[in-house]
Amino acid sequence: MTARPKLAVWKFASCDGCQLTLLDCEDELLAIAGVIEIAYFPEATRGEVAGPYDLSLVEGSITTPHDATRIQEVRRISKTVVTIGACATAGGIQALRNWDDVDAFLSIVYAHPEYIETLETSTPISDHIAVDFELRGCPISKAQLIEVIEAFLHGRKPNVPGHSVCVECKLRGTACVMVAHGVPCLGPVTQAGCGAICPAYNRGCYGCFGPAESPNMGAMGDWWKSLGVSDADLARALRTFNGYAPEFREASEAYEQ
Amino acid sequence: MSSEREIAVDYLARVEGEGAMYLRLKDDEVLDLQFKIFEPPRFFEAFLRGRRFQEAPDITARICGICPVAYQTSACNALEDAAGVQVGGQLLALRRMLYCGEWIESHGLHVFLLHAPDFLGYESGIAMAADHLERVEAGLRLKKTGNHLMTVLGGREIHPINVRVGGFHRVPSKAELMELRSDVEWALETAIDTVDWVSGFPFPEFERDYEFVALQHPDRYAIEDGRVVSSRGLDIGVTEWNNHFEESHVPWSNALHATIKERGSYHVGPMARYSLNFEQLTPAAQAAAVGAGLGPTCTNPFQSIVVRAVEMVFACEEVLRLIDAYTPPPQPALEVPANGATGHGASEAPRGILYHRYQVDEAGLIADAQIVPPTSQNQLSIEDDLRSFVPQYSQLDDEQLQWQLEQAIRNYDPCISCATHFLDLTVERE
Q1: Whole-angstrom Cα distance, residue B396 to residue B72?
Q2: How high is the ipTM of this complex?
Q3: What percentage of chain B carries pLDDT values higher than 90?
Q4: Does the beta-carbon distance from B46 to A64 stay under 8 Å?
Q5: What is the Cα–Cα distance from B143 to B207, expressed in whole angstroms?
Q6: Contact check, Cβ <8 Å, B155/A201
Q7: Which residues of chain B does A42 touch, with a Cβ-Cβ cutoff of 8 Å?
Q8: B132 touches chain A (CB under 8 A)
Q9: A194, B156: Cβ pair inside 8 Å?
Q10: How far apart (Å, rounded) are the C-alpha atoms in residues A106 and A116?
């Protein structure tokens, strides 16, 4: 029997939802475990096979000095590093601290801030190490995760399109909520991948998958303003799970002034 | 000859989030014991300040990928309480159905992939599949049924997009729900079979006299709302939470330790719900429990796996009842005004009570937030379990003892990612 490639799943600051996506592949999980050795995945197994690893999936952002060191070790022992989800690719919702004073946050949350070791910022994995591929989403899509694993097994580039959610609405046959119903929607600037679920459920996209390729932030903002949205609310809408992704960050900072 | 030994687990497996355990003992005497949570803090309560109250369900869902509906529901309850709005009728029924989906998904994950391997001596559910393929496949399908319910009702299983303060963005047609029926019927049979299977596992003889705390509702097995009651006579509305519970910050944990004022540690989760609300379980769930040899209360934490399976039976039966009684409500959501008030809300996450409190200003912005997740409430109970458990099993070698202690922690299905994100302003004020 030829050796299967070794998979490791790492967690940094996160909600565990993206690694749970792997366990949520109920129909595929046992087949995946047949072609790839799940060597390190603490959420699923107490067994541990020593590195190096062929494929490392990294969930979560870097928020502590200890994690800033640990991610270097992950890179050192991994052939391929794929970040999974908004925390790992953009810093996550916890990156809201990047616009604030972390000491104030600490004293709001903890009686003894001195017990807590934390960095001033929450940053994506690619700020710390070279990353081979970034999978977007809060949470990631099951289908895209399986595509990434398959692409890795066949040594090809994952087929994960960079176009906007608008394309998915058209494919799904959903009428544009912004044009037809006047509902503010981040779809035009957000990367596809979720299947355009929000507009199909009568609400505007709220940007879980982060910026699409070359988003036209200005045109989107003008639409929102024409619907009566204030600059402060525009800034809020852009500052959620992917708020620290460069395109969203720059736009929200402009609306804040 | 007496000898001192140390057992340290640096990274607990098969739990959600980053935790560790440290034990120092001499013979059967515990010298030091810590259940540590080193999951990095993410400061949700801090950055919720200044956000629109309507954003709270989507934002707080991100505290936990395993139980987002619990966060969304407790947030909605608290913000509706602040506005003086009460969601009822079919909107409430949909909320309960969505929540049952989460219970099936979360309990299915824990029973089959995280907890059963301990009893049968496997390192993971995947390793267990080599010898118990049919069981693992059935477990995955059961879990998938829960996820599918969440997808239809919530838009997706992790961080559903359809929940809003006051109700939903879109409500399903009767036909959409009827399509789910046959899957749920299959899940009900499988869950009944699961109760029987797990009740045959070898359980250590270990009982503790817990103070159980759970929500209780006069009309139904409490999930999405209710009063806070305990096995030692506590019976309060959710708004009184901070008068009876408090939290403290210990150096070895990034999650605050919650206690009942004057009495100390308490226990939340499936065993507490089961023991306090047994009478309200559906007939099939009660029958499965009795068939499994459980009494009307359960105080052996290792048997929590049986109780979770019983709750899956209950959740499936409840979903079938709700589907049959469903007619689409006239509006997907009630209007919820901003009126500058404070609101409290709680619901039964798969792991136990989840309490939220928000103060909303006149402009509809959150001025203050407090979130008390179940695992932070169970931290002391977990440590107490370990402390009483060790002397009984100190004759085991280090490796076996370590596995037993890990299992004792996994009894609680701890969600460490959740536990690390809350504060208690009560402590600061005192």
Answers
A1: 44
A2: 0.96
A3: 76
A4: no
A5: 29
A6: yes
A7: 11-14
A8: no
A9: yes
A10: 8
Distinct helix (H) and strand (E) counts, chain B:
17, 13
Residue A68 to chain B, least CA–CA distance (Å): 12
- What percentage of chain B carries pLDDT values higher than 70? 96
**pTM of the entire predicted model:** 0.96
Please name the residues between 228 and 267 in chain B that touch chain A, using a CB distance below 8 Å: 248-251, 254, 256
| E strands in B107-195 | 163-164, 167-168
Closest by CA to B265, choosing from B210, B323, B340, B186, is B210
Does residue B329 carry a pLDDT above 90?
yes
Contact between residue A166 and residue A195 where contact means Cβ atoms under 8 Å apart: no
* A92 in Cβ contact with A13 (< 8 Å): yes
Cis peptide before A52 (omega within 30 of 0): yes
Judged against a pLDDT cut of 70, whether residue A13 lies above it is answered with yes
Is the pLDDT score of B423 beyond 50? no
The b/e string for B54-91 (b: 16+ C-beta within 10 A; e otherwise) is ebbbbbbbbbbbbbbbbbbbbbbbbbbbbbebebeebb
State the Cα–Cα distance between residues B345 and B333, nearest whole angstrom: 18
Q: Which of residues 364-403 of B touch A (CB under 8 A)?
A: 403
Taking Cα atoms as reference points, which of B22, B58, B88, B303 lies closest to residue B156? B58
Q: Does B211 touch chain A (CB under 8 A)?
A: no
Strand partners, B257: B248
Q: How many residues does chain A have?
A: 257
| Residue B13 confidence class, pLDDT cut points 50, 70, 90 | confident
- Alpha-carbon distances, residue A78 vs A6, A104, A125, A164 (angstroms): 10, 37, 14, 31
**Percent of chain A residues past pLDDT 90, beyond the cut:** 88
